[in-house]
């Protein structure tokens, strides 16, 4: 893939032309970075999400395929014309994809990291607000979508070096339990319905948190490995 970028040719060209010689100096720096454990997507400066190409660098989490399930669920479930906020937008892939797939929605993207918002802006997320969750907002939203940081702090050291040493720490872990940001989203959600990506083994904890905040779990979607990954919630009995 690095060669394909260097040559400006598709991957199929690189695979079909093993006999061609290239100037090694062009690829050396990229290979050194890769050997040092830097993720391929940061070196290439781009990745694919939901069939489109987005810019990424070390200011943002690299979009994961599981997050496409969140986007798919949002496209299916969110009602026409709804006001939607993407909390922790990072590279902006959720907000930008939703806006493209569902032009009827009004989508706002927010992140506590201003550096991430710069990347999101370059990726076509149009309405951007720097905020600690919804603290900066006075308006209400109909739906919240979020892939929040959800890795328990103690688990960060067990992650692959690409993730642990290169992706922004604040995008990975919210604290000791892993559910701290999810709990705060429930606190701030008001009447909005919520679509959340959750971590491996987190469903029971999220159900408990939801119940404590008068949220009902309406739907759970598994990822391709059969792990509950996306939860749709709505509030009941809340004034
Ligand atoms: C797991 S990343 C998700 C990025 C992107 N939405 C995606 O799915 O690829 C979580 C994001 O939440 C942001 N974040 C962390 N704490 C936050 C907070 N208190 N308020 C708003 N955003 C926060 C991080 O900066 C990071 O961009």
Describe this structure in words.
By secondary structure, the chain is an alpha/beta fold. Helix content is 36%, strand content 20%. It has 11 helices and 9 strands. The protein has a 7-stranded mixed β-sheet, with helices on both faces. Helix 7 (114-122) links the parallel strand 4 and strand 5 (127-130). It is globular, with a radius of gyration of 19 Å. S-adenosylmethionine is lined by residues 61, 63, 67, 87-91, 93-94, 111-113, 116, 132-133, 147-149, 170-171, 181.
Main sheet strand line-up: 5-4-3-6-7-9-8
Number of discrete helical segments: 11
N-end to C-end Cα span: 54 Å
Q: Let me know the number of strands.
A: 9
Query: Which regions contain 5 or more consecutive residues with pLDDT less than 50?
Result: none
Molecular shape: globular
Helix content: 25-40%
Beta fraction: 15-25%
- The secondary-structure element order is HHHHEEHEHEHEEHHHEHEE
Over all CA atoms, what is the radius of gyration? Answer: 19 Å
Largest sheet properties? 7 strands, mixed
